[in-house]
């Protein structure tokens, strides 16, 4: 489907399919719907891309891919004039990267729903979602590594991902990685383009999104469950990242579910 300055394609890749070394004349995003693939670059680095991940590739960047069985992706090709507008304001999209965070995941989900369930308002809705996703990509494209992550830093990140719901200190994470706090903070930002503290907040908002939309748990309880000091702090942080309050987010998801069923 062609939508303004974008082209959307859904593709199912066969088992062990290899793309070979290639580069594209246009930048694109890949939302992995099912399965997984490995993306490799000329420097030898290989990055795994699993279901739920969103990957950005700039134009003219040499790479290759190997797909597992049943890998299904939604590819968004970005027209040069659209990229030129973004590149006037940021240099964050000059290399491959994973687009992480609850906002990107929510936008990708909405994009696929609109793409599959087409009606008279689909084109307008899709264009709005695509522009939001492009803006979020400009903010977050560097948060996923474009190169292999050192083992100690990967351990640090995995420790945060396993413990983000409780109070964590930089010193505690640094001890797990066997490095000092300054080195951890610098390398974490270098590889993931975000601070450790902001990454923890993003993981908490991501968990809150799941609870808000899949349970009837009161928002005050979700706030405590997700590591926020109170509901006010939760609402402020959630709105800063998602653009709307937890209550409104829950309403929109419920309305979308009703319209589908």
Could you outline the blueprint of secondary structure elements for this entry?
Layout: E1 2-3, E2 6-13, E3 27-34, E4 36-41, E5 46-50, E6 54-57, E7 63-67, E8 71-78, H1 80-87, E9 97-98, H2 102-116, H3 122-140, H4 151-163, H5 170-177, H6 181-192, H7 196-214, H8 219-225, H9 231-242, H10 246-260
Antiparallel strand pairs: 1-2, 2-8, 3-6, 3-8, 4-5, 4-7, 6-9
Helix pairs in contact: 2-3, 4-5, 7-9, 7-10, 8-9
Keywords:
261 residues, alpha+beta, Jelly Rolls, 2 domains, six-stranded antiparallel β-sheet, three-stranded antiparallel β-sheet, 10 helices, 18% strand
Structure, explained:
This protein folds into two domains: 2-143, Regulatory protein AraC (Jelly Rolls); 151-260, Orthogonal Bundle (Arc Repressor Mutant, subunit A). It has ten helices and nine strands. It has helices spanning 80-87, 102-116, 122-140, 151-163, 170-177, 181-192, 196-214, 219-225, 231-242, 246-260; strands spanning 2-3, 6-13, 27-34, 36-41, 46-50, 54-57, 63-67, 71-78, 97-98. Helix 2 packs antiparallel against helix 3, helix 4 packs across helix 5 (170-177) and helix 7 crosses helix 9 (231-242). The protein starts with a strand and ends with a helix.
CATH superfamily membership of the largest domain: Regulatory protein AraC
- Which runs of at least 5 residues are low in confidence (pLDDT < 50)? none
Query: How do the SSEs run, as a string of H and E?
Result: EEEEEEEEHEHHHHHHHHH
CATH level-3 fold name of the largest domain: Jelly Rolls
- Give the oligomeric state of the chains in this entry, treating copies of one chain as homo and distinct chains as hetero: single chain
CATH architecture of the largest domain: Sandwich
- The CATH class designation of the largest domain is Mainly Beta
């Amino acid at each position: 489907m062609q939508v303004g300055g974008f082209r959307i394609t859904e593709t199912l890749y066969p088992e062990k399919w290899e793309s070979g070394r290639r580069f594209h004349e246009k930048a694109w995003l890949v939302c992995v719907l099912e399965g997984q693939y490995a993306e490799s670059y000329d420097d030898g680095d290989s990055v795994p891309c699993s279901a739920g991940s969103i990957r950005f590739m700039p134009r003219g960047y040499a790479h290759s891919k190997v797909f597992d069985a049943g890998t299904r992706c939604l590819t968004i090709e970005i027209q040069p004039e659209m990229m030129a507008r973004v590149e006037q304001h940021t240099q964050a999209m000059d290399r491959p990267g994973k687009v992480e965070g609850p906002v990107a995941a929510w936008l990708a989900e909405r994009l696929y729903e609109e793409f599959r369930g087409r009606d008279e308002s689909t084109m307008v809705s899709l264009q709005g979602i695509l522009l939001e996703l492009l803006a979020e990509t400009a903010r977050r494209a560097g948060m996923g590594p474009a190169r292999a992550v050192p083992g100690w830093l990967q351990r640090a990140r995995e420790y945060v991902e396993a413990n983000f719901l409780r109070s964590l200190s930089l010193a505690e994470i640094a001890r797990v990685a066997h490095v000092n706090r300054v080195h951890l903070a610098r390398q974490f930002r270098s590889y993931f383009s975000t601070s450790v503290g902001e990454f923890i907040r993003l993981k908490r908002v991501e968990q809150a999104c799941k609870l808000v939309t899949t349970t009837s748990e009161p928002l005050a309880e979700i706030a405590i469950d997700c590591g926020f000091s109170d509901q006010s702090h939760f609402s402020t942080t959630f709105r800063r990242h998602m653009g709307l309050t937890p209550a409104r987010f829950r309403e929109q998801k419920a309305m979308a579910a009703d319209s589908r069923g």
